[in-house]
Write a structure and sequence with these properties.
Number of strands: 2
Distance between the termini: 33 Å
Number of helices: 3
Structural class: alpha+beta
Strand content: 5-15%
Shape: elongated
Radius of gyration: 20 Å
Helix content: 55-70%
Number of domains: 2
Length: about 80
């Protein structure tokens, strides 16, 4: 979910700017538990690219090892079997 800057209190955005310039990431805790991480958008883009590249490599490895399905029904059958 994307929240516009106008939805965040002005001080909140400036606080994130200040903290993100001093730290690589900012962890937000809720009731004493770590819940969110704020990081610069460029770092988020790098993280997303890493995750997509990792997923792509996993799919290619599955394809190489013949762990893919050639039709939708066999895929659905496998999912149903794993759910039982």
């Amino acid at each position: 979910m994307t929240v516009s800057a106008s939805e965040v209190k002005t001080k909140g955005v400036s606080l994130f700017d200040k903290l993100c310039s001093a730290f690589e990431e900012v962890v937000i805790s809720v009731r004493g538990k770590d819940k969110y991480v704020v990081l610069p958008f460029e770092e988020y883009e790098q993280y997303r690219a890493y995750k997509l590249e990792k997923a792509y490599k996993e799919v290619m490895q599955d394809k190489k090892n013949a762990k893919t399905h050639t039709d939708m029904q066999s895929h659905l059958d496998k999912i149903e079997a794993e759910l039982e």
